[in-house]
Amino acid sequence: MTQELLFRGALLPLFGISWLSVVATASIFGILHLGSGRKYSFAVWATFVGIVYGYATILSSTVVVPMAAHAVNNLLGGIIWRYSQNRLHAGTNAKWPAVIATSVVLKTGRFTS
């Protein structure tokens, strides 16, 4: 939640509510997700998701929708990670359930605002 307050609640309005600002804040969001043994693919994923969260902020005119989407994404990502750690040959750590759940939260938030 604090990430969304910083990136979508503070930086996005500071940079101006525009698509360029969405991409800029999402890029910073992605870069800051590097480190702690994470790969560049995770930073690319975080940048993409940051663009989606920025888009949701603009469409809904509130930071609550990206906060909820971020929480759902993290929850499902954690569940998927935990499940894959319990299997020897789990394959790739698919993010599609998180993408679907995030899009449902974003769509619901868009129509309730």
From TrEMBL:
Coiled coil (UniProt feature):
none
Span of domain CAAX prenyl protease 2/Lysostaphin resistance protein A-like: 2-76
Membrane-crossing ranges are: 12-36, 42-65
Q: Which keywords fit this entry according to its UniProt record?
A: Membrane, Transmembrane, Transmembrane helix
* InterPro entries, sorted: Rce1/LyrA-like_dom (IPR003675)
Which is one GO molecular function term here?
endopeptidase activity
Q: Which organism is it from?
A: Solanum tuberosum
Name the UniProt record assigns to this protein: Prenyl-dependent CAAX protease
GO terms (BP aspect): CAAX-box protein maturation
- Name the domain of life: Eukaryota
